[in-house]
Amino acid sequence: MSDLQSLARRLMALDDRIVACMKCGFCQQVCPMFGATMMEADVARGKLALVSNLAHEMIRDPQAVADKLGRCLLCGSCEAACPSGVKIMEVFLTARELVNEYIGLSPVKKAIFRGLLTHPELFNFAMRVGSPVQSVLFKKNRDAQHTVCAPMLNFMLGDRHIRKLAAKPLHSRYGHLDEPRMAGGLKVAFYPGCMGDKMYVDMAEACLKVLRHHNVAVFMPKGLTCCGIPALSSGDAKGMIEQMQLNLNLLEQGNFDYLVTPCGSCTATIKDFWPMYAERLDAGMKKLADDLAAKTMDINQFVVEVLKVQAVPAGDGATVVTYHDPCHLKKALGISAQPRTVIAANPAYELKEMHEADRCCGCGGSFNLFHYDYSRKIGQRKRDNVVASGAKVVATGCPACMMQLEDVLSHNHDDIVVRHPIELYAETLK
């Protein structure tokens, strides 16, 4: 009975948060999912109408509700465009949590979010075992993006073109890293994220190269796990909180000035969602999450605003590069100019803006897993804009976006390389 009363209170609280929606349709203009399907149910306005009647819909057909709420990239475009200031992302995440509490988390998601990702040593072991098997399951594509595909697994993965797991992940290369400060120098905690640790290791190495060039000491504790955004996006707040606690307990051991990460999604999660969900924990953990969020920065922002790296004129014969704004980085954190400055710090590149640079690429984390057909369709629009820019390189500040861009570019046989802005700047350093 108490569980039902709690559920009723939380549903009523959702109603209070969406009452400001004016049904104006501004969200329709910017929603990448609506652009792909042209269905009102896929736009924020339609989903908010669903949420407003959530109690009745959950009783009638809870799985259908979960499916409808899942048809969203959580890119935040609607919230950024909302003239009424409705906190749409918070509403959708809470609604997903409530629905999943009602119907129960699937065994597969529970195994991943509460089993694998809350035990980083097990997660790392699974990746180590999986790395050598790639040569059997995956086939190399002849593309500029150096992707692979797995025809034998198309029934499960779809026809994805992705990077291979690194032969040696970042945590294996460095273990527990706790460098001493240089005289009067800065020290940062470096949070590479799952993809920076296990897939885009060269990008993570470029970050460390930049930090060391600027005499910044690095703290990177052994045992860091996922930031929790995949679990949270799937409605598993409990799994997300467990992952957050593991990371907070490790990061608490370091003495550093900033936490920097090269992943826009990780940065937004640590800054916005860790403090929010830490409210469900004790006061000490809440303070720790608040303090950490206050000194967390995207690495592009850190390089420009703290290390004072500046743009320089492009040299003769510079390679044309365009930039894709990751949704969480620009729409949630307002980080847009800084990555462009980092790119322009290398005179070997000339930045040329693409059309719709801040429109979602279609990845959306777990959305890509469950709605790959729509993800590809949305990604194709991004790919067309990249190609139309005439660029030979497309840079972006989120590994998930890098993965999505590599997939769509590879499928189209485009001779365009995907890089992180930090990788381009690192090329200028000895």
Give descriptors for this structure.
alpha/beta; 9% strand; 25 helices; 430 residues; 56% helix; 4-stranded parallel β-sheet; 5-stranded mixed β-sheet
Brief write-up:
The chain contains 25 helices and 11 strands. By secondary structure, it is α/β, with parallel strands linked by helices.
Notes on the protein architecture:
- The protein is an alpha/beta fold and 430 residues long.
- It contains 25 helices and eleven strands.
- It has helices at residues 2-18, 26-30, 32-37, 44-52, 54-60, 62-70, 77-81, 88-103, 107-116, 120-137, 154-157, 170-174, 193-198, 201-213, 229-233, 237-251, 264-278, 283-294, 299-306, 327-332, 337-344, 366-370, 372-388, 399-411, 421-426; strands spanning 139-140, 148-149, 177-178, 187-190, 217-220, 258-261, 296-298, 319-324, 349-351, 393-396, 417-419.
- The protein has a five-stranded mixed sheet. Strands 9-8-10-11 form a four-stranded parallel sheet, sandwiched between helices. A two-stranded antiparallel ribbon has the order 1-2.
- Helix 1 (2-18) runs antiparallel to helix 8.
- The longest helix is centred in the N-terminal third of the chain and has 18 residues, at 120-137.
- It is globular and about 60 Å long.
- The chain starts with a helix and ends with a helix.
- The relative contact order is 0.11.
Structural class: alpha/beta
The quaternary structure here is single chain
What's the mean pLDDT score? 91
What is the count of DSSP helices, taking H or I runs of 4+ residues?
Answer: 25
Widest β-sheet, arrangement of strands? 3-5-4-6-7
Give the DSSP E fraction (strand runs of 2 or more residues). Answer: 5-15%
How many strands, what sense, and barrel or not for the largest sheet? 5 strands, mixed
As residue ranges, the low-confidence spans are none
CA(first)-CA(last) distance: 65 Å
What Rg, in angstroms, do the CA atoms define?
A: 21 Å
* Count of DSSP strands: 11
Work out the helicity level. Answer: 55-70%
Which shape, going by the Cα principal axes?
Answer: globular
